[in-house]
């Protein structure tokens, strides 16, 4: 079943130390374009996230927003640099005694000096970090894919209905085409009669030759056969599981080419009106195809 290129998904995962929230949205795009926005400390995991998405999505622009919250207590260590604190204290006492200033030395004052209290972030377990991010990403991706499949199903239904309508118009044109040749023959005969005083002078062989030439030039049999073939291929493609957007786009282009040829060959107003209708329906299908993966 075909898939749309539009969708949204959200996933969450957590362990003892952290919580991930991943939001993912996709829109139509000619190629497979993946943009990841994540904390800098996770940048080394960007390619893994992209590979995860590429396994499922072959076409479209995908944007990921990854947020990380530390919820554990083991990631940060705070320590006191006692030798340095002692030196600061000695200097402060010397300053007090030398200049006879008020003794306001306190813990809060010492804590303001650089490097007295060290805050260090413990090294993270990269494998555990990836497992948590992977779980959140897979949940978001699953929601995204479900939405793309649901919308794709509706697109396929709409395109299928339009194909049925187009087939009906083609059938009408196919039935009308032989009648156009007969009408041309009668009009040609009437025109010749108007020009000749004696209708007995009409050369039936020459008349038949002109009609045959006209019928050959205006024949749309090949175009109709190809159009029906393209419709069959289009319907078949709608049931395929892989990305088919480019293939559908190609089929629509070929169908447009055949319809244009029918229009250029036909001098019949009724057929021309049907050609206009066909082009309108094909344009609607083309717009839908632009959003198919």
Automatic annotation (TrEMBL):
Keyword Nuclease included in the entry's annotation: yes
InterPro entries reported for this sequence: YicC-like_C (IPR013551), YicC-like_N (IPR013527), YicC/YloC-like (IPR005229)
MF term (GO), any: RNA endonuclease activity
Record keywords, A-Z: Endonuclease, Hydrolase, Nuclease
Cofactor: a divalent metal cation
A Pfam family that the UniProt record links to this protein: YicC-like_C
Domain Endoribonuclease YicC-like N-terminal as annotated: residue spans: 2-156
Domain Endoribonuclease YicC-like C-terminal intervals: 173-293
Family statement drawn from the similarity comment of this UniProt entry: Belongs to the YicC/YloC family.
Protein name per Swiss-Prot or TrEMBL: YicC family protein
């Amino acid at each position: 079943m075909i898939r749309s290129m539009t969708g949204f998904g959200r996933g969450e995962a957590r362990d003892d130390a952290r919580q991930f929230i991943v939001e993912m949205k996709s829109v139509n795009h000619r190629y497979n374009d993946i943009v990841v926005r994540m904390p800098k400390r996770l940048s080394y995991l960007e390619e893994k996230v992209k590979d995860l998405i590429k396994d499922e999505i072959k076409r479209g622009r995908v944007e990921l927003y990854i947020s990380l919250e530390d919820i554990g207590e083991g990631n940060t260590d705070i320590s006191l640099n006692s030798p340095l604190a002692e030196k600061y204290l000695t200097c402060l006492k010397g300053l007090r005694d030398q200049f006879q200033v008020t003794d306001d030395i306190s813990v809060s004052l010492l804590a303001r000096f650089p490097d007295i209290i060290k805050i260090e972030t413990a090294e993270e377990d990269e494998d555990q970090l990836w497992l948590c991010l992977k779980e959140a990403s897979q949940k978001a991706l699953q929601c995204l894919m479900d939405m793309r499949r649901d919308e794709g199903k509706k697109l396929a239904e709409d395109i299928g209905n339009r194909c049925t309508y187009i087939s009906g118009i083609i059938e009408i044109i196919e039935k009308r085409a032989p009648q156009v040749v007969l009408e041309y023959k009668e009009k040609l005969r009437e025109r010749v009669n108007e020009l000749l005083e004696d209708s007995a002078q009409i050369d039936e062989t020459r008349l038949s030759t002109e009609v045959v030439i006209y019928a050959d030039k205006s024949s749309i049999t090949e175009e109709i056969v190809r159009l029906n073939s393209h419709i069959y291929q289009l319907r078949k493609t709608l049931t395929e599981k892989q990305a088919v957007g480019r293939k559908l786009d190609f089929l629509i282009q070929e169908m447009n080419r055949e319809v244009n040829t029918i229009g250029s060959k036909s001098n019949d107003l009724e057929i021309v009106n049907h050609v206009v209708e066909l082009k309108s329906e094909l344009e609607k299908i083309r717009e839908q195809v632009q959003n198919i993966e």
